[in-house]
C-alpha cells in the first residue's frame, strides 16, 4: 500500500491536487472536510454537530473525526493506498492514524506539505468562496481563525512525521499543473521506495 498525507494550510490546494493524484496513482482520496460537508448536506446528527464547529473555523472534536475517518478507510479494503486530505489535523489524530494503519500492517509513507503564504491563502479562499457555497469561505475573520488553528494545532504534525523522516515540503505556488508535477514526482519516489 502507498499512503500519503497531503498537508498544508486551508486554501493551499490540497483538494484540487488530491483529486489529480488520486487519478494518476490509483489511490483512494479521503477528505474529512468533504465527508463533513456530505453529512451536513444530509442533515445527519454527525453533520449537525460538525457544522457548529466548522462555521466558526474550529476543528471538529477528535473523537468524532477519527471514527468517521476509520469507517471510510474500512469501506475501501481493496484500495492500493490512500491520499489523506485534511486529516490528520491534530497530533492525537496522527497517532490514531498510525496505530490504525499499523493494525493493518501498513503505514504512512510520506507527508507532502504544500507551502503557500498567508496572503495568498486568504486571496484564494475568498475567491473560492464566491462559488464554493461554503459558509466558512466567505468571512475574513473565520478564514483567519482557520489559519490560526492550522498554525497552532495542525502545523506540529509536520515535525511529528519529520522525526520519522517522512515529511517533505512542496512549493505550492504556481499553476495547478506545475504543482501537480512537483507532487507526482515525490509520490513516484515514495512508491519506488515502498516497492524496493
Ligand atoms: P477542509 O475542507 O479540509 O478545509 O475542512 C473544512 C472544515 O472541516 C475545517 O475547517 C474543520 O472545521 C473541519 N475538519 C475537516 N477535517 C478535520 C479534521 N481532520 N479534524 C477536525 N476538523 C476537521
What does this structure look like?
This protein is of the alpha/beta class and 196 residues long. The chain has one domain (2-195): P-loop containing nucleotide triphosphate hydrolases (Rossmann fold). It is built from 9 helices and 5 strands. Helix 1 packs across helix 9 and helix 6 (118-132) packs across helix 7. The longest helix is centred in the last third of the chain and has 20 residues, at 176-195. The protein is globular, with a radius of gyration of 16 Å. The model has no long low-confidence stretch (mean pLDDT 96). Bound molecules: adenosine monophosphate. The site of adenosine monophosphate has 16 residues, from helix 2 and helix 3.
Terminal Cα span = 13 Å
Averaged pLDDT, please?
A: 96
- Structure summary, number of beta strands: 5
* Number of domains as seen in the coordinates: 1
What is bound: which ligands? adenosine monophosphate
In sequence order, what are the helices and strands, one letter per element? EHEHHHEHEHHHEH
How does CATH name the architecture?
A: 3-Layer(aba) Sandwich
Amino acid at each position: 500500500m502507498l499512503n500519503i498525507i497531503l498537508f498544508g494550510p486551508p486554501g493551499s490546494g490540497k483538494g484540487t491536487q488530491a483529486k489529480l493524484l488520486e487519478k494518476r496513482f490509483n489511490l483512494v482520496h479521503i477528505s474529512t472536510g468533504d465527508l463533513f460537508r456530505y453529512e451536513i448536506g444530509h442533515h445527519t446528527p454527525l453533520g449537525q454537530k460538525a457544522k457548529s464547529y466548522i462555521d466558526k473555523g474550529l476543528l471538529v472534536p477528535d473523537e468524532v473525526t477519527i471514527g468517521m475517518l476509520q469507517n471510510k478507510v474500512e469501506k475501501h479494503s481493496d484500495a492500493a493506498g490512500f491520499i489523506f486530505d485534511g486529516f490528520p489535523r491534530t497530533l492525537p489524530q496522527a497517532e490514531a492514524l498510525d496505530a490504525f494503519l499499523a493494525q493493518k500492517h501498513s503505514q504512512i509513507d510520506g507527508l507532502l506539505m504544500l507551502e503557500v503564504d498567508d496572503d495568498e491563502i486568504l486571496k484564494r479562499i475568498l475567491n473560492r468562496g464566491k462559488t464554493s457555497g461554503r459558509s466558512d469561505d466567505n468571512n475574513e475573520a473565520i478564514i483567519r481563525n482557520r489559519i490560526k488553528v492550522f498554525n497552532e494545532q495542525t502545523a506540529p504534525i509536520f515535525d511529528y512525521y519529520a522525526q520519522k523522516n517522512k515529511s517533505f515540503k512542496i512549493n505550492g505556488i504556481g499553476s495547478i499543473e506545475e504543482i501537480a508535477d512537483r507532487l507526482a514526482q515525490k509520490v513516484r519516489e515514495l512508491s519506488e521506495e515502498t516497492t524496493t
